[in-house]
Amino acid sequence: MNLVESLGAQRLLAIVRGKDPAAALRTVGTLAEEGVTAVEVSLTTTDALTVIRRARAELGPDALLGAGTVRSAEDAARAVDAGASYLVTPALVDGLASYGVPVLMGALSPSEIEQALAWGADAIKLFPGSLGGPGYLRALRDPFPEVPFVPVGGVDARAARDYLDRGALAVGVGSPLVGDAADGGDLAGLRARAAEFRAVAAGETP
After folding, report:
1. Active site residue 204
2. What pLDDT band is residue 205 in, cutting at 50, 70 and 90?
């Protein structure tokens, strides 16, 4: 799978984390139904590996389903075994290239970005994006014009639009999109927010 091409086409990565495994699985399925097809299940989700395994079975082998909050090679091994087709880290994590799946690696400073690329990151998760905002991404584009960035952290619909306008490959969105759905909350609200974020990703006015 070419992660950069896939995220560049979707421009939106949904981040699912919650305390209710069944609700988390329903959230992944609902997002897919609403056309949000790039989804990351955080390993901080209760029974996350089972959620990933069952979501993979339901969505099929080609679904853009990844594991997030990967903090070690051991996390990576378990996630890939469960069916994750890519890995997302919150910070610099070495030793992931050997697992044969793309890596969206967390970094913030220019030095961290260089290290992530040296360790084989396919794209950079700019995290926490809220620290610098869209203006920081714009500043990074000059020294890193070819690096694919995915800002994550505090990305609401307005920030998502600004990031994408400033050259982000995609945006990663957790609670502003998912809300309480992964804890057993409202799926109707999730569907409405999914439509809003999909419109932003498509460059439309929601």
Report:
1. no
2. low
